[in-house]
Amino acid sequence: MTETAVEGDVRDTPLAEALGERYLAYAMSTIVSRSLPDVRDGLKPVHRRLLYAMQQLKLDPKGGFKKCARVVGDVIGKYHPHGDVAVYDAMVRLAQDFAVRYPLVEGQGNFGNIDGDNAAAMRYTEARLTAVATALMEGLDEDAVDFNPTYDGTEEEPAVMPAAFPNLLANGASGIAVGMATSIPPHNAGEICDALIHLIDHPDCSVDDLVMRLPGPDFPTGGVLVETRDAVLEAYRTGRGSFRLRGRWEMEKLSHGLYHIIVTEIPYQVQKSKLIEKVAELLEAKKLPLLADIRDESTDKVRIVLEPRNRTVDAETLMEQLFRQTDLEVRVPLNMNVLDAESVPRVMTLKEVLRAFLDHRHVVLIRRSNHRLAKIEKRLEVLEGFLKAYLNLDEVIRIIRSEDEPKPVLMATFDLTEMQAEAILNMRLRSLRKLEEMEIKGEHATLSEERAGLKALLADEGMRWSRIATEVQAVKAAFGGDDDLGRRRTELGDAPSAVIVPIEAFIEREDITVILSEKGWIRAAKGHADNPDDFKFKDGDQLKAAVHTQTTEKLLFFATNGRFFTIGGDKFPRGRGHGEPLRLSIDLPNDAEIVSIFPYRPGGRLLVASTGGHGFLVKTDEVLAQTRAGKQILNLGDGEQAAFCLPVEGDAVAIVGQNRKLLVFKVDEIPEMTRGRGVILQKYRDGGVSDILIFTLADGLSWKMGERTRTETNLMPWLGKRATVGRMPPNGFPRSNKFL
């Protein structure tokens, strides 16, 4: 090479510009020729070349199988210059009925399974096309689509398939290109056809109208779609979104109230073996307290057995926990980023995808009709020449026998075209019989009628769309019927509410009696014990409170310092001993004591009051404490202590002071607060509160008189306003100034 030539080929280019040009070329190649499907046939180049190579090998559904290695060899040798492993993997996926909703390849041999096991090597497996694949390629030999040269220029391959089957939505697609990706879940072919027919009949319809007929994805592995309708509509309107998919499960009842949960369908593209491994890891880490065991009893059908911890475990709660922590619930993305008819990548809405498919079918119909029309015209021309020959058969024979160049003589004598003359010269002698003449006349009439129909079709757009609608109906009848292939597999469920699984759900429910002694020792006895004599205490100690509750409930403790403490029913020491000091569970100061203990009831109200006669109402939800330190609710004045905490189960309050004055007033007069000192309940000159009772005014006020109970129904003398003094109680009121 001369120095001048070298200098002429060298250009000074900035590195960023040179890299940008080359990377852009690579990016476009990845987008157009590898990762994104065509909106018209839903295929990527590798899939299109696989199907075309199999068609060329005559692997139709009614024919025999051929080794996959033969197919892969043809694909990489003629059409797709990539690695054989990548091509075989693509072929295997087209044959997996758990990966593709409508398989395009029928496999024979080991093509992998839902556990994630790989297919056998290509030299062992065999394959042929399915009916769906043949529908995709119907019309390839009728000039339905353009053909492009292959990579080496020696052969041709289709630029797109004629696609009588709506493959893009039916089988979905996924791929990652440079700077963009696509993810389209599979749908039901029958529902797609319904939407297509509606779009043909109503071109101006909305996406909402289409979604009424195409309500959501339909996955090959079934499952339950639990997405809100608004979210589904928004995804199809914009071409972007996601769908929440759960596995399908059912309860299998056993004896003695026991049961198992059987998972019969798992979400799309979730490997069963990895799902079970994940659950087993969570079990080992003790993150699934409601689950005792999991085992796989699957055959050709999925059957995963979940064994709950005990019979009291709620199945819904257990499954909700599994949905949150495992791939029994997944989100399937929707990103309808595809190549349009001009090979331009863009995100399409549902209506745009369906319209692009119909427009492609319209183009295919016109091209096939023109191709057929040209064939008919050519055949009719030949038939007309035959008919002329039959009318002048003797003269035709004479010219052929006597003339050295019979073709021009025939053309001149009978006004024939070159094609007609050539056909007459190539006619076999056996065709000269009378029967053959009648067949030619019949064929001519039939083809003439077909030609008229095709011309009418090409001249009338409405007739063409009617033909396309008929074709779509035929596709629905073939692939969207009420059979295993066409029936919807994914159930359209309701979107689950935002369920918060309470921690109590992870605890075995059991009746207990919480026993608190005067010296602050606490324990839980099994069952609801009613006889205090059965409770054993240390010497010098005795019962302070015994509360019937359950291990799944929370207990509230109100102390003399005005703080509430919360302890779960499962946290108390069990057994036959004396328990343990309460101060080990809560940070109760040494100078404070427990005033009352009772189970937490959501939505309830409490009256809290101090020895000085101040108090207020507070909701039980406000007093729940999250830490050992408790929650300060009642603020105290000098010399005061918190002394009363009563559930509000009535409409009136009876309060008696140490000065033996009784006052009755309505509960409504006490304000509801979340924290504070409260208001004056009863006015005193000296002393404070002796006792408080909440009761129903219509039932009267009752108090203990020895072994019997007295009820005073005429309370008008003591009925007054809050913060007044009150009057001396009725005769017979206990000298202890206590109601109970």
User: What is the typical, i.e. mean, pLDDT?
Assistant: 89
Measured as a percent range, the helix fraction is 25-40%
What is the CATH domain class of the largest domain? Mainly Beta
Number of helices: 19
What is the number of strand segments? Answer: 34
The parts where pLDDT drops under 50 for at least 5 residues are 1-5
CATH architecture of the largest domain: 6 Propeller
Strand content: 15-25%
Distance between the termini: 118 Å
Biggest sheet details: 4 strands, mixed
Radius of gyration: 43 Å
Provide the spatial order of strands within the biggest beta sheet: 14-9-8-17
Structural class: alpha+beta
Strands, helices and their partners?
Elements: H1 3-9, H2 15-35, H3 45-56, E1 66-67, H4 68-79, H5 84-95, E2 105-108, E3 126-129, H6 131-136, E4 147-149, E5 156-158, H7 167-171, E6 173-176, E7 181-184, H8 189-201, H9 207-213, E8 224-225, H10 229-238, E9 240-246, E10 248-253, E11 259-265, H11 272-284, E12 291-296, E13 304-308, H12 315-325, E14 329-335, E15 337-339, E16 345-347, H13 350-391, H14 393-402, H15 406-414, H16 418-425, H17 434-459, H18 461-479, E17 491-492, E18 511-517, E19 521-526, E20 543-550, E21 554-559, E22 563-568, E23 580-581, E24 594-599, E25 605-610, E26 614-619, H19 620-623, E27 631-632, E28 642-647, E29 652-657, E30 662-666, E31 679-680, E32 689-695, E33 701-705, E34 708-712
Parallel strand pairs: 8-17
Antiparallel strand pairs: 1-3, 2-3, 4-5, 6-7, 8-9, 9-14, 10-11, 11-13, 12-13, 15-16, 18-19, 18-20, 19-23, 21-22, 21-24, 22-27, 25-26, 25-28, 26-31, 29-30, 29-32, 33-34
